[in-house]
Write a structure and sequence with these properties.
By secondary structure, the chain is mainly α. The protein is 40% helix and 4% strand. It has one domain (25-92). The chain has a two-stranded antiparallel sheet. The longest helix is centred in the C-terminal third of the chain and has 23 residues, at 70-92. The structure holds zinc ion. Zinc ion binds at residues 30, 32, 51, 53, 55, 69, 71-72. Residues 30, 32, 51, 53, 55, 69, 71-72 line the site of zinc ion (ZN).
Length: 94
């Protein structure tokens, strides 16, 4: 049994980058879906990844602490085909 915590490690990353947030700051409070390998790498390196919903975010070491992003969940449940269609539709409306 271990009782180590990485909370301080996460806290030190919160520097002065708050102006990177686009329109609202709720993204950081969700756990997003992304490619698992990318998330693993990003968690280790502390680099951002692109989630299914399009959000660029730095995965938490403890995603269970956060609710799943509803948009990511929706896209995840659509499956690869549904996601492709959704993305195409979104791209077409731009
Ligand atoms: Zn998301």
């Amino acid at each position: 049994m271990t009782s180590t915590t990485t909370e301080t490690d996460t806290a030190t990353r919160i520097t002065g980058d708050t102006d990177l947030r686009p329109d609202h700051g709720d993204h950081e409070r969700f756990a997003h879906y992304a490619d698992r390998d990318k998330i693993t790498e990003a968690t280790v390196l502390g680099t951002p990844v692109v989630a299914l919903c399009g959000k660029v975010w730095v995965p938490s070491r403890d995603p269970k602490k956060y609710p799943v992003c509803p948009e990511c969940k929706r896209l995840y449940e659509l499956g690869p085909d549904g996601r492709m269609r959704d993305w195409n539709e979104r791209g077409a409306s731009e």
